[in-house]
Amino acid sequence: MDSKQIEELLQKYWNCETSLEEEQQLHSYFSSGHVPEPLKETASLFQYFELQKKKSVSDQFGRVLLEKIKPKGRVTNLWQVSLRIAAGVAVLAAAIFFVREEIRKDNTVAVEDTFDDPQKALEETKKAFLIISKGFGKAEHEAKKINMLNEAKDKIQTKENTKTEL
User: Fold this and answer.
1) Full DSSP string of the chain
2) What's the pLDDT tens digit per position in 86-128?
3) pTM metric for this prediction
4) What is the dihedral of CA 133, 136, 138, 143, to 10 degrees?
5) Residue 90's closest CA among 102, 98, 79?
6) CA-based end-to-end distance of the chain
7) pLDDT score of 76 more than 70
8) If you average pLDDT over residues 133-155, what whole number do you get?
9) Domain ranges in the chain?
10) From the CB of residue 35, how many other CB atoms can be counted at a distance below 10 Å?
11) Distance (Å, whole) CA 30 – CA 39
12) What percent of the chain is predicted at pLDDT more than 70?
């Protein structure tokens, strides 16, 4: 077989368009040992394929595989499966119960927040404003500390700038 035919067959092979007979021709060509230098890499690939075809598994392979797959000491019967299903249903029911309780609590809090007595509403509003006021007081105190640090930094920078200018 000439190199042009081999090149065409290889092109078809790489495009997955060869028939089984054409692939067999390629295998026999590359296993012949008379392969030009540009096709040596492809020849080693086909030789690898041939080598892999010749390999086989041992007779004990199936037995060893089955031993590894087979569960050991775990006998599950209908009673155990039923208990597992019941436990799953119990967990699901408990989760649904707790979620519904949380939703119910959220709805009742919203109802309790509205007041019929204006005096009570005013007292609750004062409490809320007092809490916010304390938060602002703490924030103002912290902001003063930051402002003081910034002023000190500015003084240090101006002193350093005057030293570098001299």
Assistant:
1) --HHHHHHHHHHHHTT---HHHHHHHHHHHHSS---GGGHHHHHHHHHHHHHHH----TTHHHHHHHHHS--S----HHHHHHHHHHHHHHHHHHHHHHHHHHHHHHHHHHHTS-S-HHHHHHHHHHHHHHHHHHHHHHHHHHHHHHHHHHHHHHHHHHHHHHHH-
2) 999 999 999 999 888 888 877 665 545 566 788 888 888 888 8
3) 0.35
4) -160
5) 98
6) 92
7) no
8) 79
9) 3-57, 80-114, 116-166
10) 19
11) 9
12) 89
Calculate the dihedral angle through the C-alpha atoms of 81, 84, 85, 88, rounding to the nearest 10 degrees. Answer: -170
The pair of structure tokens assigned to 124 is 């609750």
The letter for the amino acid at 100 is R
Name the amino acid, one letter, at 88.
G
Q: Looking up tokens 């299903």, which residue turns up? A: 85
Residue with token string 């040992």: 33
CA distances from 82 to 85, 137, 166 (A): 5, 62, 90
Amino acid at the residue 156? I
